[in-house]
């Protein structure tokens, strides 16, 4: 019994180490390729700039809808961050990782972690743009940090799963966002409600718990499905 | 005339013919009964005859739940046993489910215009149902995008399991966010909050539409089976490509890049 527990702890340790290695590898690839932040952040900022052109430069309206627009842009363009081309390993890379004994669950967790870190950076860069353009209320801004983190993890897990399901398909660029966006609505809802609740003085803890629950469900689904999805690439 | 056919083949053939006849016949009978029940049920005190749309709208929404639950179960079954039939069932049920989800949305919109004054409103039930529609459109798009049947089955099975999380969200949306759409009247604990004559007509229509679902899925399954069979026969009988036996010369020491 004790031996089994020790083996399980050791297995979890190896899994976590592999996940960290995969995440570090993905981040190194991103630093070299510059696909996510240098391209998608300006794209998202341009979208924030274009939205008032479409709805009218009504300052009170923009102030009221500012955080909502920010979260919509985060979800739409954050999806592009998670399904970026460099986030998907080529068959030869996958085979090598499999030969090295890297569990598919560790690969999923590592890729999700890397995408989540990129999404945190993505949101940290876009938030000041939204504040500058829309001047939304900053009351309860301290609640923004856990929201950013939880949205990043949920979106990263969904994007990693969708990216793996659509790997190698000609329509991957359009199909993966189609799979991610409808499922990411709880993230949008919780993100906007945290901001609205904080602005009106209500505690947004319930919405943060919803975000946490969504994250746990998606990450668990991704980890459990990783083995089955892994086979698809062989 | 059937003297040359073995008894077992005759039994199978008779069973298949029977199945082909009784399901459409039962569906047609139930649909006719459902139509009669919907016409005979009393009109709503406030909405009048417009309320009769409910006898199609509610069964369509119920079938969306049922169809996606079958896709979920069949996807799990495929991941467990890897039987092609489970994949075909998941696909067929999702197709029919997407159709009925779309029908429920359109009929709800038709009903909403005179009653609520708008074709669309930002009610949580409406929004989550529209999202459910898009989730399963994505599922069907994924299936169409993957050419290899084994790869398609694996990817679709994983998505078929994950996508089902949206169904309870749709059902409970009216409980979580009390908005314009009415809360559950039948699928809830306690006595249904609906006139019993209307409830009877509704249940007959639910049965009729469920039979229609079974018929459509059965037909789609048969079509998918024939399609697989045709693809297999085509692949078997495919003549070799001209020049397939000829390989390009490889200089010594050159490594394969594949």
Oligomer designation: heterodimer
Biggest beta sheet attributes of chain B: none
Helical proportion of chain A, percent range? over 70%
Largest interface: A-B, 21 and 25 residues
Domains of chain A (count)? 1
What gross morphology of chain B would you assign? globular
**Rounded Rg of chain A:** 19 Å
List the domain count of chain B as a whole number.
1
Q: Tell me the span between the first and last alpha carbons of chain A.
A: 36 Å
Q: Radius of gyration of chain B, rounded?
A: 24 Å
Estimate the strand proportion of chain B: under 5%
How many helices of chain A does DSSP assign?
9
Largest sheet of chain A: none
Using DSSP, what is the number of strands of chain B? Answer: 0
Principal-axes geometry of chain A comes out as globular
- What portion of the residues of chain A fall into strands of 2 or more residues? under 5%
Low-confidence stretches of chain B: none
Task: Give the uncertain stretches of chain A in residue-range form.
Answer: none
Output the keywords:
heterodimer, A: 234 residues, mainly alpha, 0% strand, B: 258 residues, 7 helices, globular
Explain what the structure shows.
Chain A has helices at residues 2-33, 37-55, 59-82, 91-99, 104-134, 144-165, 172-183, 185-199, 205-232. With 234 residues, chain A is mainly alpha-helical. Chain A has one domain (2-232). The mean pLDDT of chain A is 86. Chain B is mainly alpha-helical and 258 residues long. Chain B has one domain (23-226). Helix content of chain B is 71%, strand content 0%. Classes of the chains: A mainly alpha (234), B mainly alpha (258). Chain A binds chain B through residues 161, 165-166, 169-171, 175, 178-179, 181-183, 185-186, 217, 221, 225, 228-229, 231-232, and chain B through 79, 127-128, 131-132, 134-135, 137-138, 141-142, 145-146, 151, 154-155, 157-159, 161-163, 165-166, 169.
């Amino acid at each position: 019994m004790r031996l089994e527990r020790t083996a399980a702890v050791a297995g979890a340790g190896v899994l976590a180490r592999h996940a960290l290695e995969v995440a570090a590898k993905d981040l190194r690839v991103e630093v070299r390729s510059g696909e996510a932040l240098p391209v998608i952040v300006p794209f998202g900022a341009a979208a924030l700039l274009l939205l008032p052109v479409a709805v009218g430069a009504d300052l009170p309206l923009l102030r009221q809808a500012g955080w909502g627009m920010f979260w919509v842009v985060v979800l739409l363009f954050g999806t592009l961050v998670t399904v970026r081309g460099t986030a998907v390993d080529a068959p030869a890379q996958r085979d090598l990782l499999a030969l090295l004994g890297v569990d598919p669950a560790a690969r999923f967790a590592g890729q999700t972690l890397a995408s989540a870190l990129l999404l945190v950076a993505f949101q940290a860069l876009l938030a000041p743009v939204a504040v500058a353009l829309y001047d939304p209320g900053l009351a309860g801004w301290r609640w923004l940090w856990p929201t950013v983190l939880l949205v990043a993890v949920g979106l990263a897990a969904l994007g990693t799963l969708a990216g793996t399901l659509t790997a190698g398909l000609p329509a991957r660029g359009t199909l993966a966002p189609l799979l991610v966006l409808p499922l990411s609505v709880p993230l949008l809802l919780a993100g906007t409600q945290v901001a609205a609740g904080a602005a009106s003085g209500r505690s947004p803890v319930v919405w943060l718990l919803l975000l946490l629950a969504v994250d746990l469900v998606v990450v668990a689904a991704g980890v459990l499905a990783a083995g089955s999805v892994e086979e698809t690439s062989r | 005339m059937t003297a040359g056919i073995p008894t077992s083949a005759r039994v199978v053939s008779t069973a298949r013919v029977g199945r082909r006849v009784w399901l459409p016949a039962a569906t047609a009978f139930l649909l006719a009964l459902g139509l009669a029940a919907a016409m005979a049920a009393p009109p709503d005190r406030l909405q009048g005859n417009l309320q009769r749309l409910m006898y199609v709208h509610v069964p369509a929404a119920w079938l969306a739940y049922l169809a996606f639950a079958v896709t979920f179960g069949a996807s799990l079954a495929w991941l467990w046993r890897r039987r092609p039939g489970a994949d075909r069932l998941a696909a067929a049920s999702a197709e029919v489910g997407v159709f009925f989800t779309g029908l429920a949305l359109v009929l709800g919109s038709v009903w909403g215009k005179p009653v609520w004054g708008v074709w669309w409103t930002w009610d949580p039930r409406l929004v989550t149902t529209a999202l459910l529609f898009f989730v399963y459109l994505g599922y069907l798009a994924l299936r169409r995008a993957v050419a290899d049947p084994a790869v398609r089955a694996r990817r679709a099975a994983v998505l078929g399991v994950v996508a089902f999380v949206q169904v309870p969200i749709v059902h409970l949306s009216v409980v979580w966010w009390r908005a314009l759409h009415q809360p559950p009247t039948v699928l809830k604990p306690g006595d249904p909050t609906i006139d019993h004559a209307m409830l009877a007509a509704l249940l007959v229509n639910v049965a009729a539409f469920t039979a229609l679902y079974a018929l459509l899925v059965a037909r789609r399954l048969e079509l998918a089976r024939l399609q697989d069979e045709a693809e297999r026969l085509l692949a078997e009988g495919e003549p070799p490509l001209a020049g397939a036996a000829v390989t390009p010369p490889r200089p010594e020491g050159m490594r394969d890049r594949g």
